[in-house]
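Consider the tokenized backbone below.
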């Protein structure tokens, strides 16, 4: 890469990241609200249905996030092509992003359709596995439009059109709540469908969302002719998206797997520890939506700088993204340390017999979550910056080594042989994420100095 004199100041880069990132942050928050709505409304309907939904969602989300890697690959490719004014390439990689995502969705559909035997083989209760399969046999078809939504969101983000995404996700969240109310409980003369009603609502929302985003994309960028001759294959672009997407998907899967392992390990310490772990993890996840949105913006802006070979602007933009991410992390640390009992207590009924124990363990975990914020923000933004530079293979290896050669063994050692319990497991998470943050940052610095 060449070094070009930056015409924008550091403050300009901060402003640009916020303008692009804030709608993405709000979009991620609204997306979380959809899952929360399903959980709450099925919880009101029936506890068994709720348990089946949790099981189904846990199975679905792993496959969905892995498949989202192909959509994430579209973002840096379109960003660089847009900076070079190559509309043909924009069309090619976006179309093939839709192709690869659809192919992946169809490939995993049998696993969703026949999920009950798989879940029983994992030791789940037969009744819950059957309920989960009932949900997934409907929602499984929804993974096709859901992944297409991710591709179109990446395409629009790369072109710095993020507000429409926010409007669509907010509308989807409201529609999901409304259709849930009608179909789960049988209101307005509709049949009472329970968990099947929640699945139908989710499927309908995904179909409407992809239609809305596709219509907006076609009308906003007619020169891209995005959906014309969509059936025509493009081996070169297909291979590029598939390879980069596979690397990104495995990177995401490595991190998700570490968190899943942490839940299994903490579960060995009993109900109170697992409840505290789940609450602390959800609070961390809510906070994480901010650096995640900033990371998406960082991918777009680094992709554009990379597309024009401007390493000076790339480095200054990276500083701005990391400054915003760490600034938010410091704020989250202050909140977690200042009011842990209030945050944890909001999730626990006042008359819960385990309340005092959950609060005690949860306060310890929020201390670890405070450390967690700093390294998690750094690693997700550093990975996003590298993704914008089309660098995904080495970051994938860094993630796998950091999370599974360091984080996972450390979580077990600190939690069990060293006797630190749930707090020790979280210390292992922090160590794994910190390792990834350091190595990814070093990788970015070396790439931009070339």
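A designed sequence for it:
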């Amino acid at each position: 890469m060449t070094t070009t004199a930056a015409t924008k100041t550091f403050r300009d880069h901060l402003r640009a990241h916020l303008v692009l990132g804030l709608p993405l942050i709000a979009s991620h928050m609204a997306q979380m609200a959809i899952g929360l709505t399903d959980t709450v409304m099925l919880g009101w309907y029936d506890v068994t249905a709720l348990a089946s939904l949790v099981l189904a969602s846990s199975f679905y989300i792993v496959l969905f996030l892995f498949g989202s890697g192909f959509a994430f690959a579209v973002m840096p490719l379109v960003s660089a092509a847009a900076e070079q004014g190559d509309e043909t390439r924009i069309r090619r990689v976006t179309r093939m992003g839709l192709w690869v995502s659809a192919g992946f969705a169809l490939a995993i559909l049998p696993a969703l359709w026949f999920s009950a035997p798989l879940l029983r083989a994992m030791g789940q209760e037969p009744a819950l596995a059957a309920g989960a399969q009932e949900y997934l046999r409907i929602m499984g078809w929804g993974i096709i439009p859901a992944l297409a939504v991710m591709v179109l969101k990446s395409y629009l983000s790369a072109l710095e059109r993020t507000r429409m995404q926010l409007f669509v996700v907010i509308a989807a969240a409201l529609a999901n709540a409304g259709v849930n109310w009608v179909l789960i409980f049988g209101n307005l003369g509709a049949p009472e469908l329970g968990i099947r009603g929640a699945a139908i609502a989710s499927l309908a929302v995904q179909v409407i969302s992809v239609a809305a985003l596709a219509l907006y994309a076609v009308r906003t960028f007619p020169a891209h002719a995005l959906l014309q001759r969509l059936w025509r294959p493009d081996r070169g672009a297909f291979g590029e998206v598939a390879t980069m997407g596979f690397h990104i998907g495995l990177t995401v899967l490595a991190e998700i797997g570490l968190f899943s392992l942490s839940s299994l390990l903490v579960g060995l310490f009993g109900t109170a520890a697992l409840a505290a772990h789940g609450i602390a993890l959800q609070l961390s996840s809510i906070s994480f939506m901010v650096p995640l949105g900033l990371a998406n913006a960082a991918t777009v802006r680094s992709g554009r700088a990379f597309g024009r070979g401007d390493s000076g602007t790339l480095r200054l933009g990276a500083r701005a993204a990391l400054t915003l991410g760490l600034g938010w992390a410091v704020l989250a640390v202050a909140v977690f340390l200042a009011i842990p009992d209030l945050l944890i207590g909001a999730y626990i009924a006042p008359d819960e017999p385990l309340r005092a124990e959950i609060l005690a363990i949860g306060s310890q975990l929020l201390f670890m979550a405070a450390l967690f914020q700093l390294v998690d923000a750094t690693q997700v933004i550093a990975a996003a910056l590298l993704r914008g530079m089309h660098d995904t293979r080495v970051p994938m290896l860094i993630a796998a080594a950091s999370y599974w050669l360091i984080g996972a063994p450390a979580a077990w050692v600190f939690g069990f042989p060293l006797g630190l319990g749930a707090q020790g497991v979280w210390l292992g998470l922090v160590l794994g994420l910190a390792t990834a943050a350091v190595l990814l940052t070093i990788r970015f610095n070396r790439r931009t100095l070339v």
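The chain has 14 helices and no strands.
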